[in-house]
């Protein structure tokens, strides 16, 4: 006797905002008539925090005390005990997306390494021990409502040379002479808009092999016992290959990957922040990096 359960949401893109009602149908397909002990639906939203292995020894108390943060936990009985006929049975459902307790806000869906924010609908067709219950889970996405952007955006100018690098005087002697300047259109960017700017190589003693841009997420987990901070690379794009012609502006253009990024999030238990690394690799494999902290938001 085969039983197949599907959760079909009314909204095809599965994107919802806090305060809305998530609705759909629970579709159950049966090869023959079956008995069941009730049909339930659970709406669950969790922030799962993980401490990296390198911090377990240092933050042992922290490691043992980090627990998931519950954002949503609503249970609904869709049908009492009874029978399901042969064929397809559809049971409609509606559940409000409201966080009932602290933090009283539904954070955006985010898939990180040490911080994961997920929202799930979990259906269960309860059956006897011998027949085994049937389970089905469906993930959906929570986003912040877009807000009006700031009226002005300030450009950020930067300059990279041996003098700007934080090196000792002895190390500076061995660094090839070069000068790279540029501008970032803004360090505050909407997650749905590209990160843009430009850079110009004015001169260099050693030919440049490649110029790359890294997007890095910085995740911080903690509680009263302490905090653990870990940075991981999300993506790396090459904006120039080979020796760059001097005094020609090279455009900077990076889009943000959905789910692996979210608006910058700072709470008392965890943080999700983002940085940009501009990496210049010279022909002799000498590498210099310039770091920029960025603020992501969601604007209309």
TrEMBL record:
- Coarsely, its chief localization is other
Cellular localization per UniProt: Endosome
- Database matches in Gene3D superfamilies: 2.60.40.640
Entry's SUPFAM superfamilies? E set domains (SSF81296)
Give the record's GO CC terms. endosome
Q: Which InterPro entries match?
A: Arrestin-like_C, Ig_E-set, Vps26-related
Determine if Oxidoreductase is one of this entry's keywords.
no
Does the keyword field hold Secreted?
A: no
Q: Which UniProt keywords apply?
A: Endosome
One Pfam short name: Vps26
Superkingdom of the organism of origin: Eukaryota
Primary role? Component of the commander complex that is essential for endosomal recycling of transmembrane cargos; the commander complex is composed of the CCC subcomplex and the retriever subcomplex. Component of the retriever complex, which is a heterotrimeric complex related to retromer cargo-selective complex (CSC) and essential for retromer-independent retrieval and recycling of numerous cargos such as integrin alpha-5/beta-1 (ITGA5:ITGB1). The recruitment of the retriever complex to the endosomal membrane involves CCC and WASH complexes.
Q: What family is this?
A: Belongs to the VPS26 family.
**Assembly and binders:** Component of the commander complex that is essential for endosomal recycling of transmembrane cargos; the commander complex is composed of the CCC subcomplex and the retriever subcomplex. Component of the heterotrimeric retriever complex consisting of VPS26C, VPS29 and VPS35L; within the complex interacts with VPS35L. Interacts with SNX17 (via C-terminus); the interaction is direct and associates SNX17 with the retriever complex. Interacts with SNX31; the interaction is direct.
**Name of the protein in question:** Vacuolar protein sorting-associated protein 26C
């Amino acid at each position: 006797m085969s039983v197949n359960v599907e959760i079909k949401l009314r909204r095809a893109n599965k994107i919802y905002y806090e305060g809305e009602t998530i609705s759909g149908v629970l579709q159950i397909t049966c090869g023959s008539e079956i008995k069941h002990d009730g049909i339930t639906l659970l709406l669950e939203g969790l922030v799962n925090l993980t401490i990296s292995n390198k911090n377990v020894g240092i933050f042992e108390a922290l490691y043992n005390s980090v627990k998931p943060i519950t954002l949503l936990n609503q249970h609904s009985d869709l049908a009492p005990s009874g029978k399901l006929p042969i064929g397809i049975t559809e049971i409609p459902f509606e559940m409000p997306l409201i966080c009932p307790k602290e933090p009283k806000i539904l954070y955006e869906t985010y898939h990180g390494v040490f911080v994961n924010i997920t929202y799930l609908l979990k259906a269960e067709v309860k059956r006897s021990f011998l027949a085994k219950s049937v389970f089905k889970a469906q993930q959906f996405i929570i986003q912040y409502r877009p807000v009006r952007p700031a009226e002005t955006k300030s450009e950020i100018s930067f300059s990279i040379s041996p003098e700007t690098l934080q090196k000792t005087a002895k190390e500076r002697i061995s660094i090839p002479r070069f000068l790279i300047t540029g501008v970032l259109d803004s360090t505050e960017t909407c997650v749905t808009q590209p990160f843009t700017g430009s850079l110009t190589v004015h001169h260099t003693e050693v030919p440049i092999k490649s110029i790359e841009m890294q997007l890095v997420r910085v995740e911080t987990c903690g509680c009263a016992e302490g905090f653990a901070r870990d940075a991981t690379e999300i993506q790396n794009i090459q904006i120039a290959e080979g020796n760059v012609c001097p005094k020609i502006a090279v455009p900077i253009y990076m889009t943000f990957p959905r789910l692996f990024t979210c608006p910058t999030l700072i709470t008392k238990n965890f943080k999700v922040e983002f940085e940009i690394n501009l990496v210049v690799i010279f022909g002799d494999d000498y590498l210099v990096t310039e770091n920029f902290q960025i603020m992501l938001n969601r604007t209309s």
